[in-house]
Task: inverse folding
């Protein structure tokens, strides 16, 4: 670990000052967004939200952004906090993240799947209706669309009701109180009195290390070669357990299926979590990396496509659907798995050119076990 | 047009000598392969061929290779032949090509689709059976496999019977007689007395021109960017008529569906035909280009995947199949369309680096209408 001076915050600032400033800002944002989110949720009681913003409604989106950042900072710089406090706080943040992420995730998934279906059937209307190159279920596309729409709307409505209920819960009020206390008063240990460069940088570097190690375990060279068909051909493999953070259950699937993902996808989802942590660690020290932000979006897309593929596969198991509907759902599933593969390709093409060692940070880490 | 000397055949040879030598060699090969092909076909009366070679059985494969080359040479250097003879001869060669190409095409398509299905279901057996990431029709994969196998075996058996019948026909005997006459005695015009460099090169260059012009009309820049989703999203568009040369009907589809392909695919199939002609024109003048050969294989793969996708879509319209079977056929269709896209990507990535102007040939042609 190097002890080069930090550039963005004044190099004379202590780690505690830098960290407190960051947490104060994020907690302040959280507290301002909370009443807005409650108002938004209440304004559409039990119904499908009218606002289709990709990140959810404005208030909820801001809550999600701040919760992710505060959780990331408390994780990465965990050595500077009172351990019991940090552990409890992170657990509550994870709870809120999972709670709030579901509804916007369903909204995005719905938009993604219905758009895919519309693309498939729109071109069809221009063609001949009898040719063998036709989508066999030309009549299946509207039915598949209606089925997915119905299932996702139901899932979204359920998620909305849960949010509405929990936003008034004692648990949320307790978390809001913690946030209020966090403004200017993070419970820091004596170690935080060191300079930001000496104390924060090595810990931020460790977050980058963890990311690099996880990425090295990915089949990156293979992913960077287009059309290996990996994402599609592995579509039958499942069973891996991944952290539930920020993930939503497939509609119609039993609760236990929440974490059941293609085993192949799990390491990519893990990298997504670590990449976000590395991003937020950079933000604490005033460093942002547009390339890292872009890769984060690529992995968000990876996850959303993987989840959408699961939804299509689950919908195909609905009893009493027609073969034409099932056929279209098969095409949609494969289409989403292709998007998974495309995201891996985008990641694999960009990652190697990414420099994770800005001035004052240590060089690329040597491989070691995670 | 340049009149630089040809290198491979002695530059003093006339165009007629060079062309006759090429046609004599190919016709000789045809005549040697013919009894072998007849014997092979008769040895497996009405049954599925035991030999699964990608190019069909040895004799049939050789017949196809020589018929393509002779037809290509007569087309490209058409100005040197008696027009009536050339036109009639090419029509008979096209007939034989279509006749012979079907059975091996079904064999390859069967191998391609069943292999894709086996990949999909093999990985499935290792996974958990209940997860939503599962191929919804885990039970659908064996049924889809059996359905495709049955339909393609039937189509192949029918194609075989037709070949068996036509190999004994007067039409084939007449074509064999033409081939015998072709050995050393191609009916050339006076123009063929010019030197090979002066006469053949400009005509071979025109074949390359035609290819370049057709390739320029392809969405090549888009194809060279991976994961544009073009091949998949266009899967519903049909109706384009393409030359039937070497193409086989989808099993179970009406005769008229033979030429019904995704409109999007037609220009690519056209480029495949032109690329083969350019290859064979090069061979006449003793010039082979390994890169062109490779691109030819890429476009063969493009066509086979497009045909396989049609077969999967057609099978999904079989009455009384289960939704699980239809779902798997949808995945298989999309998988084959992904292979179509992958072939376009491979072509789009390699074409620009291809030099089509070897020593003594004219430079890259200016665009003009085909």
Result:
């Amino acid at each position: 670990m190097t002890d080069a001076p930090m550039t963005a915050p004044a190099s004379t600032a202590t780690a505690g000052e830098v960290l407190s400033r960051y947490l104060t800002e994020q907690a302040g944002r959280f507290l301002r967004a909370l009443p807005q989110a409650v108002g938004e949720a209440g304004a559409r009681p039990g119904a499908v939200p009218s606002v289709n913003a990709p990140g959810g409604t404005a208030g909820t989106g801001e809550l999600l952004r701040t919760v992710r950042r505060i959780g990331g900072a408390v994780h990465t710089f965990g050595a500077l906090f009172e351990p019991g406090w940090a552990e409890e706080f992170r657990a509550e943040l994870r709870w809120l993240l999972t709670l709030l992420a579901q509804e916007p995730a369903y909204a995005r998934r719905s938009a993604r799947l219905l758009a895919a279906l519309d693309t498939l059937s729109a071109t069809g209307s221009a063609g001949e209706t009898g040719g063998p190159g036709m989508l066999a279920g030309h009549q299946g596309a509207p039915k598949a669309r209606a089925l997915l729409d119905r299932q996702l709307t139901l899932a979204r409505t359920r998620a909305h009701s849960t949010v509405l209920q929990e936003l008034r819960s004692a648990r949320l009020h307790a978390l809001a109180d913690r946030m209020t206390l966090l403004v200017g008063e993070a419970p820091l240990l004596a170690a935080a009195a060191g300079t930001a460069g000496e104390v924060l940088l090595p810990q931020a570097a460790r977050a980058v290390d963890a990311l690099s190690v996880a990425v090295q375990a990915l089949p990156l060279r293979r992913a960077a070669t287009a059309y290996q068909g990996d994402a599609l051909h592995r579509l039958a493999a499942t069973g891996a357990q991944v952290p539930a953070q920020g993930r939503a259950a497939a509609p119609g699937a039993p609760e236990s299926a929440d974490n059941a993902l293609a085993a192949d996808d799990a390491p990519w989802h893990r990298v997504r979590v670590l990449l976000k942590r590395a991003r937020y660690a950079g933000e604490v020290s005033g460093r942002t990396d547009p390339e890292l932000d872009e890769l984060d979006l690529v992995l968000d897309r990876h996850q959303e496509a993987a989840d959408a593929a699961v939804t299509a596969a689950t919908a195909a198991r609905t009893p009493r659907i027609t073969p034409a509907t099932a056929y279209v759902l098969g095409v949609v599933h494969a289409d989403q798995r292709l998007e998974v593969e495309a995201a891996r390709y985008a990641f694999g093409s960009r990652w190697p050119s990414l420099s994770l060692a800005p001035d004052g940070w240590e060089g690329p880490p040597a491989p070691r076990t995670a």
